[in-house]
């Protein structure tokens, strides 16, 4: 049976057994259905991984390149262009996937999508500036510049807190995706 939003789904009423969604890899869907983790714990894990590890990796990679190849600043300048763009599309794809599997209604998901797009666009600009600090002369960024970047990062985090919100119900799929 097909739902209005696309993808295949089973008829699902209270007490019926749900079938695997065909628009997601079977192992991933099975893992999602078997997951007994509380939605807020899922949210926290996504948030920490997404907003802690990914930016840290993007910001530390040019630093490592500068240590390994100190005489080629052009390489870091190229990275300042390429890394934020690649990270933007990676974040977009993964973020849209997270939004598509959460347990929120359509209106909330639409807001989450807007928040995701705003957040990752802003973070791409912050990524570029932070990467370029590896080739900037000493003192190029003042304290007020760093404070401004901090405010932008807080804006990013606020948007991502909302964008990655998984919903609170323990049902495997949100009620609006059940087909009659």
Automatic annotation (TrEMBL):
Keywords of the record: Membrane, Transmembrane, Transmembrane helix
Transmembrane regions listed in the UniProt entry: 43-62, 74-92, 113-136, 148-168
Q: Which domain of life is it from?
A: Bacteria
- The name this protein carries in UniProt is Uncharacterized protein
Its ancestry begins with: Bacteria, Pseudomonadati, Planctomycetota, Planctomycetia, Pirellulales
